[in-house]
Amino acid sequence: MADHLLKASNVRQQLRPLLKWAGGKQWLAPSLAQLYNISASTRLIEPFAGGAALYFAAGPERAVLGDANRTLISTYRTLTRHPAKVFAELGDMRIDADTFYRIRAERPALKARIAARMIYLNRTAFGGIWRVNARGEFNVPYGCKPETSLPTLPTLRAYSIALKRAKFYASDFEETFSEPSGPADFIYCDPPYTVTHNNNGFLRYNETIFRWNDQLRLADLCNSAASRGRRVVVSNAAHRDVIRLYDKSLFFGFVIQRNSNLAPQIEYRKPQDELLLVSKSLGFTRQRISNLLQKMELLQTTPRSRGLRW
């Protein structure tokens, strides 16, 4: 797959995600980028942008980034236009517990302050988790590492430049899918889901973060896009009910493994299985994709994983 190796390094500086995100794919983005043939005509579409790990790893010329988290999309938009203003707002945000709880309690109206607050809380909250309660209030406690720092102005300007190539949607994923797409586009879907479930508990655990009806809507959109020749990759929970939603004539299915870093105690940060669906419209054989995943030490070959893939 050398002909599809990541080419962004030859064009521009690559960036790691600015924001840590639960379920983020920084660990997987380099492998996905190798499935993504970057050219001037290629556009990346991410209906669940989150930390936008693939966008920053692949460095496409054009992209559509959508997310239901309006604060996240507002932060990206503001950073695109006003990195210096965001940096100025970060100036009074010290990294200590007292400052953290003061900033957490704020309800800013200025867009630059909203963006700075999100960056600050994301860097200094426990595990980098962004979580709000039923009233929309951020409720994660303080808990960053001693070496934590806030981004510099040159760093924010680098992200500002990178994000200028993207169009943003603060909306349900279906609206992002409504963006007209062509055969040169690459659609990557990484919906929110938990991997810490057993077969009986899957629906109960996931209903609060991504409803089963949402899974049905997403699968319909992905199957439809793949049937029209669109290039689609989906990350999802490695569960038989999810797998059944995707057309086997349109997708290859693989079980890959990653380590969970959200548990507070190291002994609970166990490897977790996830499902990777790759549309056949990408033009790769199952063996070529398997070889790439094996090279990256991601492919699972346990009896359970063999029963879930196709």
UniProtKB/TrEMBL annotation:
GO biological process: DNA restriction-modification system; methylation; mismatch repair
Record field: catalytic activity: a 2'-deoxyadenosine in DNA + S-adenosyl-L-methionine = an N(6)-methyl-2'-deoxyadenosine in DNA + S-adenosyl-L-homocysteine + H(+)
Keyword S-adenosyl-L-methionine: yes
Protein residues bound to S-adenosyl-L-methionine: 21, 25, 67, 190
EC number from the UniProt entry: 2.1.1.72
Keyword Ion transport: no
One of the record's GO molecular function terms: site-specific DNA-methyltransferase (adenine-specific) activity
Gene3D superfamilies: Adenine-specific Methyltransferase, Domain 2, Vaccinia Virus protein VP39
Pfam families referenced in this protein's UniProt entry, alphabetically: MethyltransfD12
Keywords: Methyltransferase, S-adenosyl-L-methionine, Transferase
Similarity remark: Belongs to the N(4)/N(6)-methyltransferase family.
Protein name, UniProt field: Site-specific DNA-methyltransferase (adenine-specific)
Organism: Mycolicibacterium rutilum (Mycobacterium rutilum)
